[in-house]
Amino acid sequence: AERCIANHIPSLNAFITPLRAGQWLDRVREADRRKEQGKPTSAVDGRLIAIKDNICTRDVPTTCGSGTLDHFTSPFNATVVEQLEAAGAVIAGKTNLDEFGMGSHSVHSHFGPVKNSRCHRSGQDLSAGGSSGGSAVAVAADQCYVALGTDTGGSVRLPAAYTGTVGFKPSYGLISRWGVVAYANSLDTVGILGRNTASVRDIFAILNQHDARDPTSLSPSSRSRITSHIQAPPLASRLSSSPIRIGVPIEYNISELSPSVRHAWLLTLSHLREQGHTIHTVSLPATKHALSAYYVLAPAEASSNLAKYDGVRYGTRTEGPDSDRRPDGYLYANTRGNGFGPEVQRRILLGTYSLSADAMDNYFIQAQRVRRLVQQDFNAVFAAQHLLATAQAQDAKGRQELADVDVLICPTAPSPPPLLSKLGSSPLDAYVNDVFTVPASLAGLPAISVPVTVTGTTQDADADAAEVVGIQVLGQYGDDMLVMQVGELLE
Ligand code: GLN
Q1: What GO terms are given for molecular function (predicted)?
Q2: Looking at the predicted complex, does its ipTM rise above 0.95?
Q3: How many whole angstroms separate alpha carbon 448 and alpha carbon 481?
């Protein structure tokens, strides 16, 4: 079914650069021959994979959804693209996104908004979530087998929740970021979208490798310390033989939660309890500050990363007289003023301000403190120790009595996908959608969003008729396999 990218659906605008069958059919046929001979290269040999357009590919452009890179083609492939191609996977095209990954609805793209392949019962278009909305819709509409996205503060998980797909953000540093255009380096991860957890796991197994070209890639020695967690085959038996301890963070039960979302959350917990697992209330007190901290830290890093798009080294140049008499005559100002969309310009201003000498202590430094508190909160509730934390840090953490849980379960987003026509004009309206996804990003933890279907009990006026809600499973650093296995229990 995934080969029907031939049926690429232009109205959804999921792809910025869709590849025509002529560009990939031979490679699929070669893979078919390998399979006939009983020698497939991997579990994804000959499968079509869509790539978010902020991940570099040598053969087709990488635009980042931006006017400033609308003619840019990378001279090299990102490591993740190389890894997939070496495994026999076939690139299906480059998917639409919020410019440079900044957004929650995939509407801030130079190439127009993405439309959700599900629509509201009124027939109106729904948000696909963002920023990896194109990747999520390509998966949901069967235009590829799986898709790669990037998740800095929720950009894989939120679109997964809105489109009814599975979206996985790994522990920070496990998947290479080399050739992935940086938004906020300390938060950026490559994530995977699929129609089920098994397909996501197949891709993760291929991408979960050290890469010397990415300085934040987890070293082989650290990897060996978490190998038992990442690759542990006995996990399956662990899940069936001993119950898992599931934490429910009380701070996530906010009054703004949509009835259908709360219903799906409760349904999930009672389903797991019926399977013999135990539910424990836990407290993550720094949660309420996490969103503000994220929206200080991410733009700060972004303002620095985007400085290179000046029309000289990178970026589509807007020429202007090089005169200091007319400020709008500057090459640099013109290029950046024309090349970047309004949301990206807002982030650059926010970031530049919060890093300025007068504001630094009040914003950036405070946000870094909150980030550490968020990390400590998680360490205090997980039974597993953070495998990269020092012994002192482990001793110092205020472990919550009786709280030792294996995973946390909470909604991915506070509400079902909003109508595209009703998106608020205030940027804050978009930012609040990330309230449940940014904590795992700040702490670098693995998290998966899995679609859970609820039937007929909601009075939620905005709920989609299908009532598919994204439920998120979070785990301790390195517990990526456990997170995926618990996610699978919910399918
Ligand atoms: N919506 C968030 C933002 O705009 C997250 C984006 C992302 O994860 N790339 O920053």
Answers
A1: ATP binding; glutaminyl-tRNA synthase (glutamine-hydrolyzing) activity
A2: yes
A3: 10
Q: Are 96 and 111 in contact (CB under 8 A)?
A: yes
Q: Give me the pLDDT at residue 4, please.
A: 44
Asked whether residue 26 carries a pLDDT value surpassing 50, the answer given is yes
Report which residue type is found at 7: N
Residue 238 tokens read as: 């662990």
Report yes or no: 475 and 407 within 8 Å, Cβ to Cβ.
Answer: yes
Instruction: Extract the tokens encoding 171.
Output: 């522990």
- Name the residue among 151, 491, 476 with its Cα closest to residue 282: 476
- CA of 431, closest atom in ligand 1: 1
CA distance 350 to 256: 26
d(CA 97, CA 155): 9
Catalytic residue status for 186: no
- Dihedral angle computed from the Cα positions of residues 44, 447, 347 and 430, in that order, rounded to the nearest 10 degrees: 100
Place of tokens 């995934």: 2
Query: What is the chain's length?
Result: 491
How far apart are the C-alpha atoms of 272 and 266, rounded to whole Å? 10
Task: Name the pLDDT band for 202 (thresholds 50, 70, 90).
Answer: very high
Average pLDDT taken over every residue of the chain = 90
Contact 487, 203 (CB under 8 A): no
Nearest to 217 by CA among 231, 207, 204, 203: 207
Q: 426 an active-site residue?
A: no
Structure token digits, residue 300:
């700060």
pLDDT, tens digit (0-9, with 9 covering 90-100), for 294-345? 999 999 999 999 999 988 887 788 876 654 555 555 788 888 999 999 999 9
As a three-state string, the secondary structure of 255-304 is: CCCCHHHHHHHHHHHHHHHHCCCEEEEECCCCHHHHHHHHHHHHHHHHHH
Is residue 301 within 6 Å of ligand 1 at its C-beta? Answer: no
Q: Please identify, by atom number, the ligand 1 atom nearest to the C-alpha of residue 433.
A: 1
Helix, strand or coil for residue 95? strand
Query: Which of 104, 186, 188, 441 to mutate to test ligand 1, by most ligand atoms within 8 A of the CB atom?
Result: 104
DSSP 8-state code for residue 142: T
- Whether 292 has a pLDDT exceeding 70, the answer reads yes
Q: Which of 176, 172, 134 is nearest to 156 (CA)?
A: 134
- The answer, yes or no, to whether any atom of ligand 1 lies below 6 A from the CB of 102, is yes
Nearest residue to 446 (alpha-carbon basis) of 218, 132, 179, 233: 218
